[in-house]
Amino acid sequence: MSKHFCFCIPVRFGVFLFSFISFALSALSAALGWFLLHLIDTNQLSRLETNVKDDDKAAFEASLHKYKWAVIVGSIIFTFVALVAFFGFVGSIIRNRRMVKAYSVLTILSFFLGSFASGFVLYATWSHKPFCVTVDNVKSCTESNLSTGGKIGFTVGIVFQWLIQLYIVTIIRRYYQQLEEEREYRNDFRLNPTTGGTYEAKEGLLATQGAYPYSDNQHRFGSNA
Fold first, then answer.
1. Which of 172, 174, 210, 215 could serve as 11's disulfide partner, Cβ 3.0–4.6 Å?
2. What is the pLDDT of residue 137?
3. What gap in Å lies between CA 159 and CA 207, rounded to an integer?
4. 166 near 159, Cβ under 8 Å?
5. What angle do CA 67, 70, 74 make, to 5 degrees?
6. Listed residue (194, 179, 184, 2) closest to 91, CA to CA
7. What is the pLDDT of residues 53-92, one digit of tens each?
8. How far apart are CA 107 and CA 198, in angstroms?
9. What Cα–Cα distance (Å) separates residue 184 from each residue in 11, 19, 97, 100, 200?
């Protein structure tokens, strides 16, 4: 039978939805990363520095030039994530086990990397240490201006986002396990995909309840049976 999440939603629809969202956000992030790299190479960072103090502007530009490699790596990673998320999206439509597996593995990996990044962001938020870079023997620093309440709200948001990502990882893994169980069933019993009478979960993205097979006049039991 089909696995579900949130009590009644098929995990296949969850993978379909989350892979589409992941693809859209990753593709957007990759595009922004490559655009930022273009601005760095062409010295056009001033296009992003509206309403920024001169000291913060200097620190911002110096940071991006010094850590240009990080922008490149981030852009490559988001591009790769977008491609694999696209595979997961297609895999959920055509029920391809290998595509869904690749998407599941990448989601687990990105979850652990994201957890590490979230921990670093929280440390930077609460450590009260400014971020400084030195370019041409000139040191420029910038630091967070969040209040204690703002930091608490930011921390709650990070934790909530982490829990949602963990749940998404679980849903994708469930769908991959469902496809594995269906494959094992077909191998064990030499059956092709059939209708709802076998184990095979052949529902659509949003499963609907079919008619009860013994509810028509030809199959009902009554006084004339």
1. 174
2. 67
3. 32
4. no
5. 155
6. 179
7. 665 666 667 777 777 888 888 889 889 888 988 989 999 9
8. 31
9. 19, 25, 12, 16, 10
Query: What is the rounded CA–CA span in Å between residue 18 and residue 89?
Result: 8
**∠ at Cα 63 (113, 70), nearest 5°?**
35
Interhelix angle 68-94/54-66, rounded to 10 degrees, is 70
Q: Which two tokens stand for residue 119?
A: 């921990």
Other beta carbons within 10 angstroms of residue 91's beta carbon come to 25
Query: What was the pLDDT predicted at 20?
Result: 93
Distance between CA 135 and CA 131 in Å, rounded?
A: 13
CB 1 within 8 A of CB 201: yes
State the residue for tokens 């609460």. Answer: 126
Residue 146 contacts residue 126 (beta carbons within 8 Å): no
Check pLDDT > 70 for residue 47.
Answer: no
CB 178 within 8 A of CB 186: no
**What are the two backbone dihedrals, phi and then psi, of residue 184, each rounded to the nearest 5 degrees?**
-65, -40
User: In this structure, which amino acid lies at residue 140?
Assistant: S
Give the pairing type, strands 138-142 and 4-5.
unpaired
In terms of phi and psi (left: phi > 0; alpha: psi -120 to 50; beta: otherwise), the region of 218 is: alpha
Indicate the SS3 state at residue 211: coil
Q: Which two tokens stand for residue 136?
A: 């041409």
- 80 is written with which tokens? 């790769």
